[in-house]
Amino acid sequence: MVDFFVGYTNGRMVETMSENKFQIFKEITIGGLRKEQLIQRLSEAGIQFNKYANTLFEHPQFSPPSEVEKVKLAKVALSDLGLQDTCSTEEFSNRASMLGLRPCPLYLAAFLRLEYLNQPDGPYLTVASPVPKKEPPRGGWGGPGALLIFKTYHKPNEDDNYPSGFYLRNFENALWLRGYKADGFSDWPGSNEFIFIARQP
Questions:
Q1: Quick one: which of 163, 174, 173 has its CA closest to 47?
Q2: What is the number of domains present in the chain?
Q3: Is residue 181 part of a domain?
Q4: CA–CA dist 197, 149 (Å, integer)
């Protein structure tokens, strides 16, 4: 049985899953490959990319560590968080964090794509990652960063057309790792789900 708790969003009572009660979608291994090796493996597996994905491959945050790490992933919909597509990114970030969900490093999407070759046709699977800025934040790339999957900032030194992250899709029997740019949750299909790293008990 899944545990729930009652909270409030915009003054509205909502019911959401409680911390550590999300089912583990997959446990995968990340790291241990250089960026070039990872992209080569994706190509050898027949994975398709769009131009936004190729842009993200060149970002400094798309840099897998040499150390291998196993992570457990949770797959959640907005409704699992007690949210609707009218919610703000701050609400999304705060609710996910409160429920023990952590954002994924940018490169995790590529490792998940290699591990999830039997994805069913149709639904989008968006990997929730900190927004990849073109310029390093103060303190360097290693900081934790806020969980933002949309470009909600507008600074002169940033390109408003720069992609926000990755999603996985099987479209007409072709497996894709696609970059996306979005400004709100209403841009997503209702069937979309988000991938987070589940907090270890």
A1: 174
A2: 1
A3: yes
A4: 14
